[in-house]
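pasting for the record
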Amino acid sequence: MDRKTHSTKPYPAEFRERAVQMVIDHFDSYTTLTAAVRDIAGKLGCSPDSLRVWYKQAQRDVGKDAGPTGAEKARIKELERENRELRQANEILKKASAYFAQAELDRPFRK
């Protein structure tokens, strides 16, 4: 499978929520979002890019930014997984059908 391996464990949801809330609360103290994210991420010990992604997703979840919400992304991922499984099952059924059709042709004809 093409699964990515994570080098570190993901941050707990509570940590991510509190970090995003800190950006929201202190955003007025900074000139740009980038400055806020860099400073706060440095204080929390996480990557600025991770914090920026969490902030953007939180904005989409509350409807302030365009794009899929977290629930929609999870639903899409689930549907893609289900679609992949159904394609695999369909492929197996096609191969089994071809095998049995060939076996039927190989059988001697009866009158």
